[in-house]
Design brief:
- The radius of gyration is 26 Å and the shape is globular.
- It has three domains: 3-131, no CATH class; 140-201, no CATH class; 205-371, no CATH class.
- It is α+β, with helices and mostly antiparallel strands.
- The chain has 14 helices and eleven strands.
Amino acid sequence: MSFERVSSKIDGAMAAATAATVEMLDAVAEMDEGRWYEWDGHTSTSGWLMTRYYVAEGTAREWVRLARALRELPLTREAYASGRLSYDQLRHLTRFARPATEGAWLPRACRMEPNRLWVEARRQERLRRAEVEEDHRARHLWMGWDEERRFLRIHGELPGAQGEAFQAAVQHRAKEIRLEAGPVYDPKGARQADAVLELVSGAGQKAAPATLVVHADAAVVTGASPDGTLRMAETASGVQLCEETVRRLSCDARIEWHVRREGRLLGIGAEGRKVPGWMMRAVEHRDRSCRFPGCGRTMYLHAHHVVHWARGGRTELSNLVLLCTAHHRALHEGGWGTSGRPDGRLRFHDPTGRAVVGPGAARASPSTRAA
């Protein structure tokens, strides 16, 4: 075999690989924009990619970043698809090129080696430092109530770095928010409002679980509602709670129960199922992150009783699993279920019984519904 034939084969393979990469990134963008990853129980495109293709988190995030960038940089996409830009050139160029500057930068980028393009990307960052310092001085936040004190109005401006960090934190958190049933005027805005409230009011994943005061029918606590009657459950301030919400909150909260039957108060007491600190540390060491396939979140995690304590489940390692807020809600209010063991192979099933495929989650028939 001659040099020409070998090099020609590599040329053909590289062209095919580039075409396949463009097609893949276009599909990733569609997955991201349409939020199709939610169909499989995931809260981000990168999490779905990690689970389905066994790629590292950094690889999955880079694919998503490139897919989003190429949606805004059509000339750059065409240059890469035609082979005028290499993958490494593409990665560096998309870190600083914008729609307004793409036309000027693209011809130069095509002629620059990847390492020089990386240096240029760093230089562009330095040129913006003076502007960033000036913008930082202009940051502000205003808050004020309306006349009836029904709504707190908030207005402010954050400079680039702070604004991007704030937006990323809110949007990342908002992906985990599941709205209550019923009409919402602005679902996206509602999720972001809830996300901001959680971020500013929470002290982080190490915060002690809140004491939840619940006035509930005895059947809500035990889950025994054979006649299908809707049972009463509300907080001390009168906020109505559905039965599954009460059981989710009671997974790792300290509960003060005001238990009633047929309107009569049966008793008041503390039914604490808070996971002891030593046990929570053992669960965290074992699970490391949310156990839902491909999630990987390490903050705002909950110790979920696979078999709820009100139905006989014990607060012990073999019955506890770490879940993020979104997947904790999914198992309680969302109709999802589990099979297997928290300290072994654990599978997650959607409301139809379909098992999520991923590391440690092979397809199987559902055998245990979360309580």
